[in-house]
Write a structure and sequence with these properties.
198 residues, alpha+beta, minor pseudopilin epsh fold, four-stranded antiparallel beta sheet, 3 helices, 10 strands
Length: 198
Amino acid sequence: MIINLALIYEPLLSLRSTTTTVCLSELPDMLLRLRLRTRYSRQRAFTIIELLVAVTIGAILLALGAPALTAMIAVQHVKTATYDFYANLALARSEAIKRNAVVTITPRGGNFANGYDLQVGTEILKSQLETKTVAYTAPVGVALAFGGDGRLTIATRYQLELTSTRSSGVSKRCLVISPAGRPSIRIDKSQDGNCING
């Protein structure tokens, strides 16, 4: 059987002014070739120039934002370490009152950055992991301990300073524990090395 394609499917023809006669058995193959050809001719892609411009803009934005992001991460590390220590101070104080015993916060290896343990005698109540991105400065030779009444076992206040090991522009944070055993967080906003005056 022979049909006139111009009457059945006019878009199949590349030249519309001429008519082509084909066998009906060739029609599916022709339709498939036409579909593939029109599908690939409609696809769009990025040119190398467009791709290079996009990558360059992305690299510039990343280079501009990286220092601010690094400083923000350093500030967050100091904040997190301060709040964790504050929570552990509150836990140690409440455990001392509850047990009516001395609860000590002991740094591992003499440095709180290596981690620390809350303990009653030899029993460890809680352990805190090390923090490599935060430096701790504590009074030398003074134990941080709460008595059974919730007060510090020393007669003066205890001050622990936390600073970033990665960025010098991060404000120092201090945990100040009064002789009554109440902790508070102070921030060295003026960056003069003294947390007490703000």
